[in-house]
Specification:
About 35% of the residues lie in helices and about 20% in strands. By secondary structure, the chain is of the alpha+beta class. The protein has 2 domains: about 1-175, no CATH class; about 195-365, Immunoglobulin-like (Sandwich). The protein has a 5-stranded mixed sheet with strand order 3-12-11-7-6, covered by helices on one side. Strands 2-4-10 form a 3-stranded antiparallel sheet. Helix 3 (about 35-50) packs parallel to helix 5. The chain is globular, with a radius of gyration of 21 Å.
Length: about 375
């Protein structure tokens, strides 16, 4: 289970681009839980970005000393990075932009500097500093975007989400189920219907109807012991930062990183945690947040047409208006968690389906 200190460090690194502050937070988190192999691994990754290779090697070995508590995929990623650190140091592009400079706080200190934000984004991305790269893109005023720019920006967002979600998957598969920190507001009961799906949403007049329970439905779900699926769930929200009330879209991409085909349910019906459907939505907001929007999903069994085979490297996407599900009416930080889950091991026509779940999440800010 990811600690609060680890989550804080990840927020600083992946979402704020505050390099020195993130490094200090990771160090503090590791002092608190020195036997956490995922934390040691991630700190090593950060140090690799900062050219501190000797300490990174030491931390990878520290992670390897506790590899038995990592998922199988986590062990594979760890071995890959151990091998990577055995190679000569990588050649860094944009050599004038040193690791000390590649820090949001340092860049903001010189308010008068005319920074080339696109170059900063490219330099940060090359070092896998995707939080800073995303921040630099926000500061960049290079418009209009051409196809290459659009692809580069999308790659930054995708890689940031994949690297952060990878840390969750390193825990999730073997003895470290991810327990979402959010709780889901109590809303009208989900109903089962013969149709594949039906959706209604309304804004409640009284917050009493949406008060959050003291125990997350995720903890009460009969499906919490599902094994992890060999898939990656990437969550992307647009915009990441914006004023309260800005239209907000959420996109999920389920991809197959293995070398074998995987049969999945592409319907990807979104619903409350523990309710029918293929994806559970969980939102944790700022202090005092209560969701003022209720929704009801009528979900029947998914038909055969929804079950498709993903070849190695392929993915399937789905998107929703997050405003239909959560009000996001308070300024502050939100954590949005999606869980794709399959309990039945066969499609309606008898084709074998891999049961299990995979978790993806992201952070957004409203002001």
């Amino acid at each position: 289970m990811m600690s609060e200190a680890f989550e804080k460090a990840n927020r600083l690194w992946f979402h704020e681009g505050r390099t020195a502050a993130a490094l200090a937070a990771y160090e503090q988190a590791l002092r608190e839980t020195p036997a956490d192999p995922v934390l040691a691994f991630q700190l090593a990754r950060v140090l690799w970005s900062l050219d501190r290779f000797d300490r990174a090697r030491s931390l990878l070995q520290q992670s390897a000393n506790h590899r038995e508590s990592l998922s199988e995929g986590g062990q594979s990623v760890l071995e890959m990075w151990i091998a990577k650190l055995e190679q000569p140091p990588p050649e860094r592009p944009f050599a004038l932009l040193t690791p000390a400079m590649l820090d949001r706080d340092q860049l903001k200190k010189d308010a008068e500097a005319d920074w080339d934000w696109r170059t900063i984004a490219d330099a940060a991305s090359a070092r896998k500093m995707f939080g800073l790269a995303a921040y630099a893109i926000e500061q960049w005023e290079g418009v209009p975007l051409d196809a290459e720019d659009a692809k580069d920006i999308d790659d930054i967002e995708t890689n940031r989400a994949m690297e952060e979600n990878m840390l969750v998957q390193m825990y999730a598969q073997r003895g470290h189920p991810l327990t979402p920190t959010a709780t889901t507001p109590a809303t009208p009961d989900t109903e089962l219907a013969k149709s594949d799906s039906d959706f209604t949403s309304n804004v409640f007049l009284s917050p009493v109807e949406t008060s959050r329970p003291s125990v997350s439905p995720a903890l009460e779900s009969p499906d919490q012991d599902l094994p992890a699926m060999p898939m990656i769930l990437t969550v992307k929200i647009t915009p990441v930062e914006g004023p309260v009330g800005v239209p907000t879209m959420i996109e999920a991409s389920l991809s197959n990183p293995t070398d074998k085909p995987q049969l999945v349910n592409r319907r990807m019906l979104l619903n409350h945690v523990g309710a029918p459907g293929e994806i559970w939505l969980d939102v944790d907001g700022p202090e005092g947040y209560q969701n003022m929007r209720g929704f009801r999903v009528r979900a029947g069994e998914a038909s055969n047409e929804f079950f498709i085979t993903l070849a190695p490297g392929e993915s399937v996407d789905q998107s929703w208006s997050l405003d239909d599900y959560h009000s996001l009416h308070l300024p502050g930080d939100y954590k949005v968690t999606l869980t794709y889950h399959i309990e039945d091991d066969k499609a309606p026509d008898g084709r074998p389906v891999t049961i299990g779940k995979v978790v993806g999440f992201t952070h957004i800010r409203r002001y």
